[in-house]
Amino acid sequence: MQNEIVLEAPLTINWAINNSCNFACRHCYSRTDTHEEIPRDVLLACLEKVAKAGVFSVNFGGGEPLLHSGLLEIARHASGLGLRVSMNSNGWLIDRETARALRDAGFTKVGISIDSHISEIHDQFRGVAGSHGRAVAALGHLAEAGITTSISTVICRINHTAIDDLVIFAREQRAGQLNFHNFKCSGLGLSHKDELDLTPGEWQEFYRRALAAKEREKGLDISLDDPIIALLGARDAGSLVKGSVCGKLSLNIKANGDMTPCGFIPIVIGNIVRDDLKQVWRDSPVLEKMRNKKATGKCSGCSKYEDCLGGCSARALALTGDLNSPDPHCWA
């Protein structure tokens, strides 16, 4: 039985305020998204709707959010409404002056994407020479400005055996958190799946070693956002829900205002400009299905199902066409 509390509104909204980007990442989920962006005045009004609904925090992404000319104004407005404001960035555009401007606009945390401790590997993966050095510099500028930093690393073929090196690197950069993001099969991630994704057995080995590192590290918070770690007897102790948090604690908003369960699930369930957020959150049949998944296939009879709830719904949808299917990464 999945008797979890359904919140009246998402705790967090991940908001892709633009689609433009100065990188060419091999795994990007949004490169194929060509929708227009919400006009700035409309976006500001939508933020008021979000705050009024009771959302706690907004995490801005894209694209590269710093390419949006109104980012600072948008962040100031969100912060002024009482929303906790954070951002994910590739770091290229963050110098000392920009870091201070982000702080003054209300950003409390900025995550920088770095996929390898080796600069050449990161640069090749992200498609821009010198991107590793600029990302490392950005971490320093943000820390100097007093903004909490994290490093976001997409685990795939280029880095899955380098856990210890990535941990040492994150400590050296004085990052407060190291996020190991499981590889998704959305957008270019699906196009390059055979090149970048791991086998289920390799995912099992990665998570065994990552969980050991998490247990070992005291000064660095290692975050693992994959529900299938429940198969190893682990789950996020701080999470209010089992399985994926998408559609239960968080929601995604695209540049044109379309709402989706997460950035990797391209199913539109409403639009923040024209629809009532709390009503969509409460009544969406798609969210209802995600909150009440049923064990199918090899999940039927699995003793870990009540904790992992079939794993990542985005991967299941991308590779099987069904949100409810077992996660293709599962090694059970």
Automatic annotation (TrEMBL):
Q: Does the keyword Iron-sulfur apply?
A: yes
A GO MF term: metal ion binding
Q: Which Gene3D superfamilies match?
A: Aldolase class I (3.20.20.70)
Residues forming the Radical SAM core domain are 7-221
The cofactors required by this protein are: [4Fe-4S] cluster
- Could you tell me which InterPro entries the record lists for this protein? 4Fe4S-binding_SPASM_dom (IPR023885), Aldolase_TIM (IPR013785), Elp3/MiaA/NifB-like_rSAM (IPR006638), GeoRSP_rSAM (IPR027570), PqqE-like (IPR017200), Radical_SAM_PqqE_MftC-like (IPR050377), rSAM (IPR007197), rSAM_sf (IPR058240)
Q: Does the keyword Signal apply?
A: no
Coiled coil segments of this chain: none
**Keyword terms, alphabetized:** 4Fe-4S, Iron, Iron-sulfur, Metal-binding, S-adenosyl-L-methionine
Q: What is this protein called?
A: GeoRSP system radical SAM/SPASM protein
